[in-house]
Amino acid sequence: MPLNREANISDPDGFYEELIASQRDLDDARADMLLAKLVLILANHVGDREVLSEALALARVNTMKTAA
């Protein structure tokens, strides 16, 4: 299964709002922990190591492009 890079979330604005709300009232460390746990939960759901490796590489490249 290749990494899906096309928009695939129904109601992306609603999901974004829910993601932001999930971090409300958390300090930076707890917000980071929530996001790390979310990544691990979703990675477990995906389960395909090849897809996960591709996603990690893509996230790193995108992060390096936006790093100050």
Report the β-strand fraction as a percent range: under 5%
Structural class: mainly alpha
Rg from Cα: 14 Å
Apparent shape: globular
User: What is the mean predicted local confidence, pLDDT?
Assistant: 95
Order of helices and strands: HHH
Q: What is the count of DSSP helices, taking H or I runs of 4+ residues?
A: 3
The major pleated sheet works out as:
none
Explain the overall architecture:
The protein has helices at 12-23, 28-46, 49-66. The protein is mostly helical and 68 residues long. The protein has a domain at 26-66.
Short structural description:
The chain has a domain at 26-66.
SSE inventory with pairings:
Layout: H1 12-23, H2 28-46, H3 49-66
Please tag this protein with its features.
mainly alpha; single chain; 68 residues
